Amino acid sequence: MGKISIVVIIGILFSAIGMVSLFLTREALTAAIWLSFGNGLILSDLRFSTKDEKGNTYVKQVPKARYYTAIFLIVFAIVLLALQIYLDTQAAGAN
Questions:
Q1: DSSP calls for the chain
Q2: Would the pTM count as exceeding 0.85?
């Protein structure tokens, strides 16, 4: 695999924050936002290298299905964030 891009590192960081927030705060929606965004970043940019018939190493392209799944996860994180903001404003208005 060699080098890992900065986008993948940020995605791993966001996913780790999501797992920690799930275990510490027990807020599933907040953890789902972090995990969805982090996993979307990882899926969108993680590239694998392989060897061809001649023994040359090359980097494979990201498959379209994985790319579309990454886009879905990032959009899903944005929708969940909007839902979190809506629920927080409703709770603040009730007090």
A1: -----HHHHHHHHHHHHHHHHHHHH--HHHHHHHHHHHHHHHHHH---EEE-TTS-EEEPPPPHHHHHHHHHHHHHHHHHHHHHHHHHHHHHHH-
A2: no
